[in-house]
Each structure stands twice: as structure tokens, then as C-alpha cells.
Design a protein that fits this description.
The complex is a heterodimer of chains A (208) and B (214). Chain A is mostly helical. Helix content of chain A is 47%, strand content 11%. Chain A contains eleven helices and four strands. Chain A has a two-stranded parallel sheet. A two-stranded parallel ribbon of chain A has the order 2-3. Chain B has two domains: 28-112, Nitrile hydratase, beta subunit (Cyclin A, domain 1, Orthogonal Bundle), CATH 1.10.472; 131-213, SH3 type barrels. In chain B, 29% of the residues lie in helices and 17% in strands. Chain B contains seven helices and six strands. In chain B, strands 1, 2, 3, 4, 5 and 6 form a six-stranded antiparallel beta sheet that branches. In chain B, helix 1 runs parallel beside helix 4 and helix 2 crosses helix 4 (68-82). Chain B starts with 27 loop residues before the first helix and ends with a strand. Classes of the chains: A mainly alpha (208), B alpha+beta (214). Strand 3 of chain A pairs parallel with strand 5 of chain B, so a sheet runs across the interface.
């Protein structure tokens, strides 16, 4: 289902072609894998491990821990905003597509949102692999030009007095947004706070 | 190159469609495709710049029709063909492959990443934080990370990010040409005209060769 409650499949009149295309792609990938395995260039067990890491261990729960720590530990927050790569590493998080991290803070006056217009650069160690919408032509083309309109579609109304900052991560830095801590959460533990943080909050397309 | 991949500011793609409770992968071949892209460079080196160059060479109509991992597949196939690893195409970059990554090494390899920042002593910075700069109005035929929508526009150096290899050269096999990369702040009104909200801004990371003093 898409955000407006429409099932994109209902609009899709080529399900049969689509299935054939998927089968074709699956066959091409299998052929490539087989060739590379036969030549001794990849180990299928290693491929399984890559999949397992990104399907089960590396995802937005990691970034949520970073945010919750920043909300509860002012010194950590300061380190996160001055050297995000090092601060994030303190929580045991680092690596591919997060070698150089920058965290940008949402405040009453500033709202940040992340995009990669040229491809789909995304901070993997903290957010995992990007969702399809982040990689879509609609998001990549529009959020740099009409961020407020795109955010509105996500259900996020940015007041006119708040500055919107769009970060196009087209080089070597991967960005994450530090959302504002919701009101009325003073008594929550760090773990309970982490449970409030969403992937979209750390991309900047949701408040938290 | 001024390709379809350089999408910032284009109209006509409609609303951002989202899938509720989206899975990490939508098909098993996507799982294998991600894993292949990450595992192969250990035996047959290539960088993100090379992969992106191949993706950007996909003809515009095919690019728009293809899913994310389908583009990766097309790109990895061409990289392997030009390196003489799989049959088809012309071998332009013959390589002697190394050993594959072992399963036990995967978790650490992910955690280690592929650091791309270079020693800051390799290049001096031409611009200081706060300097007014203009994104050059250039239209290279090869891979570049200078988005079209900032070209010719004036911005301000927000951060000096340090020294990195230059993708325009690296993707062409011309060497790394280490240079400073900067976060540059542009006003949304400068980029999109008076209709954009006055206080809003856009930050984009640009290599020094993309910039000139304003």
C-alpha cells in the first residue's frame, strides 16, 4: 500500500509481464553468481552472510540507539554533532556507506531532510538499506526543489518560521538527522526513547 | 554526464509512493544482487565511482524502467565484462583477480567499510569556510558528482570536509587527483527563484574542481 492508501499493484496492468521480467532478472543474477563462484571469485556462504547482516542486524534500530543516547547524554550529543563518525563508533556502529558521517540537528528553528539526487546514498550503518521511496525518481527530483510540499505528503507540516535545510549527500559524507525529542518523554528510559525513533525521523521525513 | 540519473529539480515524477511495512528485499534475487555487489570487489576491485559510471550509462528510458537492484545488475555485468571476468563485450580493463572474501570475514569487512578520506596533507585548500563560491557551469561527458541544479549558482562554503579522491578522474582510471571537498550552502531562492521560501537552504558536498571564487 502507498501512503495515500492506494495499492500500487491495483494500478499496474502488466502483472504478467512483471512476473516474467522478475524471472528473467532472477535468472541473470543466478547466472552471474554461478560464473563468479565457478571462477572462485565469490563464496556463496559469504554472500549469505552479507544478506544476513543487512536483513537482520543493520537497520534503523541502530540509528535509534544513537538518537536516544543523544537525547539522554548531552556530552554524547555534542560529540555526535562535532564528529558523528567517532560518536557513532562509540556505540559499536561503523562501516560501509557510513565511513564519514555527519549528524544534523532538528530544532524549533531548523528542520533537516536528507536525499541523494544523483543515486541513492544513504547511511547504512545507522539506517540499513534505503527504502524504495528514498531511491525513487519522485523523491530524488522533488525534495531539493519543493521540500515543504514533499514533507507535507509525508504528513509533516513545517511552520513558515522554521528553516528547511535539504542535504544532498552526493559525495562521501553520509548524513543522519537528529530529530527533536518529543515533549512529555522526560521519564522514559534510553531504550524506551529509542523505540519512539523511526527511520523516517532520521531521514527527516517524519518528526521523530 | 548530463544523464537521467541527475534528477534534482525535475518535474513530472508524481507523488512519493510509499509501501507500508516495506521488507528489506522484495525478491530473493535482490538479496543475491546486493551481496554480489559487496563481495565481488574483494576479488575484482572496483569502486563506487566505477559502479555509478556504469549505472549512469544505462539509456534514460531503461534507467527509468529499471528497479534499483536491476541497475546494479546491469552495472556489475558491464564491470565484469570490461575486466574480462565474464564473457561478452570488449575487455578494456583486464585484471588478475584476487581471493574471494570468506564468510567469517564478512561482518568485520562491513564494519571496517572502505574509507575514502585521504591524508589532508595531500592537497591544500583553495577555499575557507565562509568564502563565496560559484559552482562551475561545466558539462563533462564522463561521471561527475556535480548536480546540474547547482551549476552556475553562487553559494557559501559551510564546511571543509577534508581531502578525497576526485570521482571524475577515478571513474575514468586517470588517478585519484586528491583534493578538498566542501559542504556548500545555497539559498533555495538562488537555486529556484523568488517562489522558494526565503529562509530555506540546500547543502551539497562538492569537490574543489567543481568550484570557482564568486
Amino acid at each position: 500500500m502507498s501512503a495515500d492508501g492506494k495499492d500500487p499493484k491495483q494500478d499496474h496492468h502488466h502483472d504478467h509481464d512483471h512476473d516474467a521480467e522478475e524471472k528473467g532478472l532472477a535468472l541473470r543474477v543466478k547466472t552471474l553468481e554461478t560464473l563468479l563462484v565457478e571462477k572462485g571469485l565469490v563464496d556463496p556462504a559469504a554472500l549469505d552472510r552479507f544478506v544476513e547482516e543487512y536483513e537482520t542486524r543493520i537497520g534503523p534500530k541502530n540509528g535509534a540507539r544513537v538518537v536516544a543516547r543523544a537525547w539522554t547524554d548531552p556530552a554524547f550529543k555534542q560529540r555526535l554533532l562535532t564528529d558523528a563518525t567517532a560518536a557513532i563508533r562509540e556505540l559499536g556502529l561503523s562501516g560501509l556507506q557510513g565511513e564519514n558521517m555527519v549528524a544534523v540537528e532538528n530544532t524549533e528553528r531548523v528542520h533537516n531532510v536528507i536525499v541523494c539526487t544523483l543515486c541513492s546514498c544513504y547511511p547504512w550503518p545507522v539506517l540499513g538499506l534505503p527504502p524504495v521511496w528514498y531511491k525513487s525518481a519522485a523523491y530524488r527530483s522533488r525534495v531539493v526543489k519543493e521540500p515543504r510540499g514533499v514533507l507535507q505528503e509525508f504528513g509533516l507540516e513545517i511552520p513558515p518560521g522554521t528553516e528547511v535545510r535539504v542535504w544532498d549527500s552526493s559525495a562521501e559524507i553520509r548524513y543522519m538527522v537528529l530529530p527533536r525529542r518529543p515533549a512529555g518523554t522526560d521519564n522514559l528510559s534510553e531504550a524506551a526513547l529509542a523505540a519512539l525513533v523511526t527511520r523516517d525521523g532520521m531521514v527527516g521525513t517524519a518528526a521523530v | 554526464m548530463d544523464g537521467i540519473h541527475d534528477m534534482g529539480g525535475m518535474d513530472g515524477f508524481g507523488r512519493v509512493e510509499r509501501e507500508a511495512n516495506e521488507p528489506v528485499f522484495h525478491a530473493d534475487w535482490e538479496r543475491r544482487m546486493l551481496a554480489l555487489s559487496l563481495a565481488v570487489p574483494f576479488a575484482v576491485p572496483y569502486s563506487d565511482d566505477h559502479l555509478r559510471r556504469e549505472i549512469e550509462r544505462i539509456p534514460p528510458a531503461d534507467y527509468l524502467r529499471s528497479s534499483y537492484y536491476e541497475k546494479w545488475l546491469i552495472a556489475l555485468e558491464s564491470l565484469m565484462k570490461e575486466r574480462g571476468i565474464i564473457p561478452g563485450g570488449t575487455v578494456t580493463l583486464p585484471v588478475t583477480p584476487g581471493a574471494p572474501i570468506e564468510a567469517e570475514a564478512v561482518a568485520d569487512a562491513i564494519k571496517g567499510g572502505f574509507p575514502t578520506r585521504r591524508d589532508d596533507k595531500e592537497a591544500t585548500a583553495r577555499f575557507v569556510v565562509g568564502a563565496r563560491v560559484r559552482a562551475r557551469n561545466i558539462h563533462p561527458k564522463h561521471h561527475t558528482r556535480l548536480p546540474r541544479y547547482v551549476r552556475g549558482h553562487e553559494g557559501v562554503i559551510h564546511t571543509d570536509l577534508g581531502v578525497f579522491g576526485f570521482p571524475d578522474w577515478n571513474s575514468e582510471g586517470k588517478g585519484h587527483k586528491p583534493q578538498h571537498c566542501y559542504t556548500v550552502r545555497f539559498s533555495q531562492q538562488i537555486l529556484w527563484g523568488r517562489e522558494a521560501p526565503a529562509g530555506d537552504s540546500l547543502y551539497v558536498d562538492l569537490w574543489e574542481d567543481y568550484l570557482e571564487p564568486a
